[in-house]
Amino acid sequence: MKNRVLIVLSVVAMLLMSLPLTGQASSCDPVRHVVKAGENLTQIARAYGVTVAAIVSANHLWNPNLIYVGQVLLIPVPCTTPPSGGCTAIHIVKRGEYLKAIALRYRTTVSVLVQLNNISNPNLIYPGQRLKVPVACPRPTPTPTPSPVAKPWKGQYWDNRLLSGSPKFTRDETLVNFNWGTKGPGGGIGGTNFSARWTRTRYFDAGRYRFNVEVDDGVRVWLDGILIIDEWHDTPPKYYFTDKDVSSGNHTLKIDYYQNQGTAQIRFWIDRLDAPTAWKGEFFNNANLSGSPVATQFYPTVDFDWGNKSPAPGVTADYFSARFSGEFQFAGGKYQFLATADDGIRIYLDDTLILDQWHVTAVRTYTVDVDIAAGKHQVRVEYFENNGVAVCKLRWTQK
After folding, report:
1. pLDDT value, residue 44
2. Per CATH, is 153-272 categorized as 2.60.120.260?
């Protein structure tokens, strides 16, 4: 009787093993798991994201409750498609980590990590091992639409030297600063026998200003309809200026220019001569502004070309540094800062670094455009001189 029961049970077991497992996902090549002390099939199945029935079937287990330490089980890992986009990151295994914990951290499964890294034995990972883990693909960062640059000058161009008739074309300009050579301004106008007019309105603080222009050939400049520079003649490149007291408020500027023959160029800018707040200059006998200053002086402008000489009493001619600071009124809008230095220079606006050229160099000029709110702002210049010629200059213009 006992033998008959065993035969019947054996037949039933064989029939059960031959039946297909319903609901089981298609499997990739199985991985091998070495049973550890205290493990059971339920825990192992949960760790790999498979069912107990799938492990029983893969290993032809008669009794799922009878597994032993050191037993090698085939785990039919489901074929899991990595996250859409296929983006991965690298995880470096730390001491004490195992695949299940890593999978939970990245919200994935052990089977996905096994597939991504071609792991034959998920029990054998080691500290320092680099594992691919699936991550969500980053969304493309939209390219911001650049803000339009304010161009306060209205430029009009004629294909004759007399500004007569209707302009050939009109365009807005950021600065009146052109060196066309023999090519001309474009718009169908060649490099000779043309003229141009630029107009704008800008705010001035009350004070004394210098109006500067470098030109080849003729130029006229008006302030509020009053002619302040009149050099309407052919000339090689030449510099002109005039100093004027200007009241607080908005004022209109107009510049007329003509080009006859040869090269064409014009550059116009304005300097403040009587800054309402002086610059405080502090000098250090080292190149990194460390310690206490050895000299302190006050200046109307930062416009220095010391050459090979000491910048102040008690300061060495080489291997020194300086800090210039002051508070200035700005009308608001876009400003261009122009710094010239030999050697290093840094510019701060309200403690925000806006220009950083802290290195040894021959004389160089740098520019940076900054949007500034109306009101008073702190400006700070930091400078160092290595050896040789020393130059430190800063000015700014409203665009």
Report:
1. 80
2. yes
